[in-house]
Every structure is written in C-alpha cells, then in structure tokens.
Design a protein that fits this description.
Elements: H1 3-19, H2 32-43, H3 50-53, E1 57-59, E2 69-80, E3 86-96, E4 101-103, H4 107-116, E5 119-120, H5 122-137, E6 141-150, H6 151-154, E7 165-172, H7 173-176, H8 178-187
Parallel strand pairs: 2-5
Antiparallel strand pairs: 1-4, 2-3, 3-6, 6-7
Bound molecules: guanosine-5'-triphosphate (GTP) and zinc ion.
EC number: 3.5.4.16
Protein name: GTP cyclohydrolase 1
Subunit structure: Homopolymer.
Length: 193
C-alpha cells in the first residue's frame, strides 16, 4: 500500500462516516480517516516469504530427531473476507521431520503472520500454513489446528457470543498414522479465549 492508496482510503473513510450519519469534522473524528487508513495498512501488511524461508532448515546428526514437533498457541489476528471484520485466535502446528531436517522454531509463527495478515477465511489460513510448511520442510507430515472467534458471528448477524470455530488440516503421515494424529491432538492446549 503506497501514499496514494492511503490518501484514497482516507477520502473513502470520510465518505463512510458521512453515510453512517456522523460528522467527520467533529473533534473526535478529525484524525479518524487517517488512522483507519494506517491501521488497514498494518492489518493487511502480509510479510514476505523470505522471513521464514531464509536459513530455515537445520540438518541434525540423526534421523532420531524424526519425532513429532509441535508449536502450539501461536496467536493470530486476521479479517474475514466476507465482512472485513476481525477474527482471531490461535494456530497449533505439528510436523514430523524427515531425514533429521528440522526447521527453526521462530519460522513457524512468522509463517502464521504471513498467511493471516490479509483478508482471509479461517479454513484457508489452516490449509495455507500446512501447505507452505510442507513445501519448505519436506516433512513426512504436517498438522494444523486453528481455533478462532469471529466478530462477524459475535457482534452482528447471528450474534453468538464466545462461539469458537476449530478448523483442522492434516497432510502426509498425519492422515495415515492415527497414533501420530492422536499424539498431536493430545498436545493441543485448552482454548483460552
Ligand atoms: N467458512 C467460513 N465462513 C466464514 C468465515 N468468516 C465468516 N464466515 C461466514 O461467511 C458467511 C457469509 O454469508 P452471507 O450469507 O454471504 O453473508 P451475511 O448475510 O452477512 O451472513 P450472516 O453472517 O449469516 O448474517 C457467514 O455465514 C459468515 O459466518 C470463515 O472464516 N470461514
Ligand atoms: Zn465475516
């Protein structure tokens, strides 16, 4: 998003304020179009793939490391592509390394940021995290579970407060090996939001 985009969004937000019956020149709203433009820029500023693909893999001495690795409770914030309202929650990721190749732990939350900082739906975030992780690690299997609350479900429409949506996506070994899948599912923390 460049300066021209930001200026244009500012004008549009000013028009929205008028259409919803507000006075965009009242004191509390004077800076609002600019703030909204900047916050939209921040919320949708997906990072680049290099943030989690450069220097990502570490070979270890032994394939004895080819055991389940799970990184849970990774927070994310996104906006639904239907209403442009926030949905947020946690991403839980498991993978089964192949040939002792492990990924730097910080790269997984970076991947979650990359996928979630744009207009999206929860199912796509779940699948994209799994597909990209599989692509960059060449793991034997990848599992992703996302728990989220959707403001478009809670504060409007059907208005169901505190309902939590869980989406899951399994690739490779997690589809074939029920024991592995159960082991991963047992690592999932209780939803705390
Ligand atoms: N599957 C899925 N649906 C979502 C997600 N975020 C929002 N939605 C749903 O997208 C749907 C859009 O439905 P529409 O009927 O086109 O829009 P609407 O009239 O605003 O729907 P209501 O929310 O039921 O009032 C709604 O059922 C939302 O709950 C998501 O991440 N995944
Ligand atoms: Zn929505």
């Amino acid at each position: 998003m460049n300066e021209e985009n930001l200026k244009h969004i500012e004008q549009l937000v000013r028009e929205i304020l008028i259409e919803i019956g507000e006075d965009p020149d009242r004191e509390g709203l004077i800076e609002t179009p600019k703030r909204v433009a900047k916050s939209l820029q921040e919320i949708t500023a997906s990072t680049t793939k290099e943030e989690f693909t450069e220097g990502k893999m570490f070979p270890t001495e032994t394939t004895g490391n080819d055991q389940l690795v799970s990184v849970n409770n990774i927070p994310f914030y996104s906006m639904c592509e239907h209403h442009m309202l926030p949905f947020f929650g946690t991403v839980n990721v498991g993978y089964l390394p192949q040939n002792g190749q492990i990924i730097g732990l910080s790269k997984i939350p970076r991947l979650v940021d990359y996928v979630s900082k744009k207009l999206n739906v929860q199912e796509n975030i779940t699948r994209e995290v799994a597909d990209i992780l599989m692509e960059i690690t060449d793991a034997k299997g990848v599992a992703v579970v996302v728990d989220a609350r959707h403001m478009c479900v809670e504060m409007r429409g059907v208005a169901k407060n505190n309902s939590v949506t869980r989406t899951t996506y399994f690739l490779g070994a997690f589809n074939e090996d029920t024991q592995l899948r159960t082991e991963f599912l047992q690592t999932l923390p209780k939803v705390g939001f």
